[in-house]
Amino acid sequence: IIVFALLAIPFGSYIQPVVVMSAIPFGIVGAVGGHLMMGYELSIISMFGIVALSGVVVNDSLVLVDAANRYRKRHTVSHFDAIVWAASRRFRPIMLTSVTTFLGLAPMIWETSVQARFLVPMSISLGFGILFATVIVLLLVPAFYLIVEDLRGLYTGVDIYTPIAPPGDGSGLDTSDSDLRAAPEATQEFSPS
């Protein structure tokens, strides 16, 4: 409930935090699957790993949804174009976060010493949950985002494929954020002349 409230305030919406938090159950599925694959039973230490997993999964989803919202507000694009842009633009940061976290946990997951045995279930929960949830964040969170916006469009009459003009002077440019300065179709590779 606290996470939901903290997400609802900056989003200004009660629905988008649900989209952001929608990947948490899938992370739990990955954690349980990791325990089954590694032959460990769920324990209270595993639950601590699942709590940490929830934070990482929410962060990955938040990066994606926030990028789509900010891009849509600054450019004349549809919800569909905004989420496609955000997914392609934020793919690398999300993947790097998840892969480096798993690789950092890998030595602990396969640790065999007696001293580290009590931390292995937590590492399994966090590591395997992140691997599974990353795929969900990159595939299902954009789909959930579009479903929510499509349902909202039924009430407002705005289609998810209809471009929305940004507020302000209509230029759509905000130089305060380098990621959002130019639309993807306006960017060109540097070619020396």
Short structural description:
The chain has 193 residues and is an all-alpha fold. Helices cover 67% and strands 0% of the residues. The chain contains seven helices and no strands.
Unreliably modeled segments? 169-176, 186-193
How many structural domains? 1
Q: Which whole number gives the mean pLDDT? A: 86
> How many distinct beta strands?
0
Q: Mind telling me the CATH class? A: Mainly Alpha
Range of strand content: under 5%
Question: How is the biggest beta sheet arranged?
Answer: none
CATH superfamily: Multidrug efflux transporter AcrB transmembrane domain
The number of helical segments is: 7
Order of helices and strands: HHHHHHH
- Please report the distance between the alpha carbons of the first and last residues: 57 Å
CATH architecture: Up-down Bundle
Q: Which assembly state applies to the chains in this document?
A: single chain
Please tell me what the overall shape is. elongated
Kindly identify the CATH topology: Multidrug efflux transporter AcrB transmembrane fold
Helix content: 55-70%
Structural class: mainly alpha
Radius of gyration: 20 Å
